[in-house]
Amino acid sequence: MAYQDHIIEMSQLVKSKGGTWDGINPEAVARMRLQNRFKTGLDIARYTADIMRADMAAYDADPANYTQSLGCWHGFVAQQKLISIKKHFGSTKQRYIYLSGWMVAALRSDFGPLPDQSMHEKTSVPALIEEIYTFLKQADARELGGLYRDLDAAREAGDKAKEQKLIDAIDGYETHVVPIIADIDAGFGNAEATYLLAKKMIEAGACALQIENQVSDEKQCGHQDGKVTVPHDDFLAKVRAVRYAFLELGVDNGIIVTRTDSLGAGLTKQIAVSHEPGDIGDKYNSFLDCEEIAPADMKNGDVVINRGGKLLRPKRLPSNLFQFREGTGADRCVLDCITSLQHGADLLWIETEKPHIEQIASMVDRIREVFPNAKLAYNNSPSFNWTLNFRQQVYDAWKAAGKDLSAYVRDGLMSVEYDATELAAEADERIRTFQRDSAKRSGIFHHLITLPTYHTAALSTDNLAKEYFGEMGMLGYVKGVQRQEIRQGIACVKHQNMSGSDIGDDHKEYFAGEAALKAGGAHNTMNQFA
Predict the structure, then answer these.
(1) How many CA atoms lie within 13 A of 61 on its CB side?
(2) Residue 525 in this model has a pLDDT that exceeds 70
(3) How confident is the model at residue 117 (pLDDT cuts 50, 70, 90)?
(4) What is the signed CA dihedral for 470, 473, 476, 478, rounded to 10 degrees?
(5) Confidence bin at 348 (pLDDT 50/70/90)
(6) Angle at the Cα of 194 (from 262 to 267), degrees rounded to 5?
(7) Could you say which of 48, 75, 87, 472 would form a disulfide bridge with 135 (CB–CB 3.0 to 4.6 Å)?
(8) 447 Cβ neighbours under 8 A, 6+ residues apart
């Protein structure tokens, strides 16, 4: 509803109360309504799901329309990210937020820092979703509050043209609320546990849930060893549980991202149930590392598979886990992805050990033989040494082309001595265009970095600590932080404003009129940053 329409509607409502509501300012109500566009998390989930669906269709039409996100571990971090995006690019279009289970475990658990093994409280995840959207809605209220102040000033000055321009800006306002892709890990239990947690995450505002095919109680970070996958039927029950959660809550457009860790997972906890040759259970079991045995070779407690009339004994480890054959990871990934898409997944996630476009494409090409519009969300992970990986990729390409490499040592390419070389420059260019190139070649619709703000917080804090506690003293803060905030127009240099002080003043005036005791007067030190 347009700004003026809100005012008209409220004026009629106030008038209908026979004078008892005459202390209510209809325009103030209109302003408060527009500052709080989303009343519930489900409003957000439905709104952002529609955005993602439209973006997915745009990508299908042209892979240049890929999307991006950065992982955020606090509402303030997400808020500042979106404020910066709007400041630098004028729009939040095709920019999302990623919520990383790793960062929840490491930074938001009541137990303190934990490894990414699903040991943190499952309620921490929906709580962070709600927190992020609280901060994003506050960013809307703050920015719209500035427009309202400018509108009042234009009216006082009698500038009708500026007044109309500001009303148009209010009516066309773009919210900071964007889609969140939220990590539900391996579901934190069985399918019922997955369903219950999914509901909480959706109710908090998540329109897209990412779930992986690891065993819940053996879950590992995607970039660590010891990963254990589950048979497809077990995983698909959880995928359906998530879909039921979306449908129950009326988010019919909700997005499910199914992640396969099979490329780096060499173990399974159980042998799949198979009813006939060639079914999904039989295909899963076909990747097991087995030895053919005769009935007389069976030992006490052996688990044996009958395949084509042959008795096969899967290799079982002392941990009671079964081992897959070496070199089957890519084939298992492809089967995982096709099976997920056949059972309601919307996006795929293939966890890889390096950022290599052709490696990803080699699997996506096979998936697209069955599902031509198959799309990925891809982890541009800080667990990758991007500099070393891409320098080695260039090195290998140059070697294949017969180029002289005598000036380079492949295993030492991370060294600073190579930073100014031609090889390093080509590697950096490949890194710069990685998202664009892999969106086109490898079917990557959404590029995310899981833990970037974890690393930036550590880096900036290290720099400040080094200067402030050293010879620079207070100048370390002023020169390295505050002066940069002022020069670069960082919104939170006015931290009182960012925390909602001006919004509170507006409300005081709405509630108490001229009697309001406001904080934003002439003696507010925030005025030094005007």
Answers:
(1) 7
(2) no
(3) confident
(4) 170
(5) very high
(6) 25
(7) 75
(8) 66, 67, 68, 69, 377, 378, 380, 435, 438, 439
Structure tokens belonging to residue 277 = 């040759």
Tell me the pLDDT tens digit for each residue of 86-100.
999 999 999 999 999
8 Å CB contact between 221 and 115 = yes
Residue 1: Cβ-neighbour burial (10 angstroms; 0-12, 13-18, 19+): exposed
Q: Does residue 333 carry a catalytic annotation?
A: no
Alpha helices in 182-295 (DSSP H): 191-204, 232-248, 280-285
Q: Look-up: residue for tokens 């688990």?
A: 303
pLDDT of 1 > 90? The answer is no
User: pLDDT band at residue 517, thresholds of 50, 70 and 90?
Assistant: confident
The residues, ordered by sequence, that sit 6+ positions from 12 with a Cβ below 8 Å of its Cβ are none
Phi and psi torsions of 251, nearest 5°: -100, 75
pLDDT at 219 over 60: no
Q: How many CB atoms lie within 10 A of CB 74?
A: 17
Q: What is the mean pLDDT of the chain?
A: 93
Q: Residue 439: what residue type? A: A
Beta-bridged to residue 68, according to DSSP, are 95, 447
pLDDT of 116 over the 80 cut: no
Cβ neighbours of residue 104 closer than 8 Å, sequence gap 6 or more: 73, 120, 124, 125, 128, 183
Active-site annotation holder among 221, 290, 333, 337: 221
Q: Tell me which H or E stretch contains 274.
A: none
Which stretches does DSSP call E strand in 266-345?
267-268, 290-293, 305-307, 310-314, 322-323
For residue 275, give Cα distances in angstroms to 199, 281, 337: 33, 8, 22
- For residue 198 the two structure tokens come to 């999914």
- Name the nearest CA neighbour of 353 among 219, 222, 218: 222
User: From CA 93, how far away is CA 200, in angstroms rounded?
Assistant: 26
**Which token pair is 429?**
């260019």
